[in-house]
Amino acid sequence: MSKSDKKSKDPVLSLVSGTIAGAVEGVATYPTEYVKTQLQLQAGGKNQLKELRFKGPVDCLVKTIRNQGVGAIYTGVSALAIGNAAKAGVRFLMYDQIANALRDKDGQLSGFRSMVAGLGAGMTEAALVVTPSETIKTKLIHDRNSNAPKYRGLVHGTRTILAEEGIGGIYRGLGPVMARQGANSAVRFSCYSYFKSALQTWRGKDDRPLPSSHTFAAGAMAGIVTVYTTMPLDVVKTRMQGLDAKTLYKNSVDCLIKVVKHSGVFSLWKGTTPRLTRLIFSGGIVFTVYEKIYQMLELVKK
User: Fold this and answer.
1) C-alpha radius of gyration, the chain, whole number
2) What confidence score (pLDDT) does residue 5 get?
3) What is the DSSP string of the chain?
4) According to the model, what pLDDT value does residue 155 have?
């Protein structure tokens, strides 16, 4: 473990670095998030009139662009980009501060303690940022599929959802979101710490920061592990945030049972390919940008 990893992280620098990293990652990988959401909305849901049906991620991308134009794959991007910046800022801030408290007297952070810090960070970001931003994003995408879309963008869509459903309308699926984000961050941070430490040992230069290619590789590998371990939670979360969730499901458990009954157990991994693509790149991007921005801000601070 490098010296920079042993010392406590500055909360302001963590927040700023995480926010910038989240915004960059959100915009860069949004088309894969759009495709994943579209595929998951088909798993166990009712078709809207004239709603397109997709055979897989490539078919979804091609049909969407052909029928609705390239701009359609960025439907809801503003909600996700803003939410991504906020949630990454909260996630890195909380992770670094919890990790600071859990380090031993030598400044070391064990794999289990890194997982606990990630769990706490993920559940915090879910409650504060992720649930409302992703609920709005999912509703905007689902509405775009209908024969007569009623949302005219992020602001109008948010205002309409609040007017029709109240604050609960943007906090639908809070339980599965907290479960997913907690699991995501627990797995992602602990895996990233492990892979990063392994790469530092392999380089034999413990006192020097890893180059961008190495942090990207560590983040990408952490993303792969995260996808396959948390995908069922992500599917349930997306279904609970769809436009038809209130009429289709009583709660998250009911949603899980109905999706499995309707489409089979493997439907819980629906959208894995686009999510895997996204998390490989997002993991690489967000950790690399975070590390570089943090190092730059430390130099400015000095």
Assistant:
1) 20
2) 60
3) --HHHHSPPPHHHHHHHHHHHHHHHHHHHHHHHHHHHHHHHHTTPPPPTT----SSHHHHHHHHHHHH-GGGGGTTHHHHHHHHHHHHHHHHHHHHHHHHHH--TTS---HHHHHHHHHHHHHHHIIIIIHHHHHHHHHHHHHHHSSS----SHHHHHHHHHHHH-GGGGSTTHHHHHHHHHHHHHHHHHHHHHHHHHHHHHHT-TTSPPPHHHHHHHHHHHHHHHHHHHHHHHHHHHHHTSTTHHHH-SSHHHHHHHHHHHH-GGGGGTTHHHHHHHHHHHHHHHHHHHHHHHHHHHHHH-
4) 87
Residue 223's nearest CA partner among 174, 268, 287, 271 is 287
CB 153 within 8 A of CB 141: no
Q: Which residues of the chain have pLDDT under 50?
A: 1-4, 49
22, 88 contact by CB (below 8 A): yes
Query: What's phi and psi for 107, nearest 5 deg?
Result: 85, 10
Q: Using an 8 Å Cβ cutoff, are 112 and 41 in contact? A: no
CA pair distance 24, 268, nearest whole angstrom: 29
How far is it, in rounded angstroms, from Cα 9 to Cα 239?
Answer: 37
pLDDT for res 92? 95
pLDDT on residue 3: 47
Q: What's the pTM?
A: 0.71
Lookup: tokens for 143: 């509405």
Integer Cα distance of 7 and 264 in angstroms: 48
Given this model, what pLDDT does residue 49 score?
A: 47
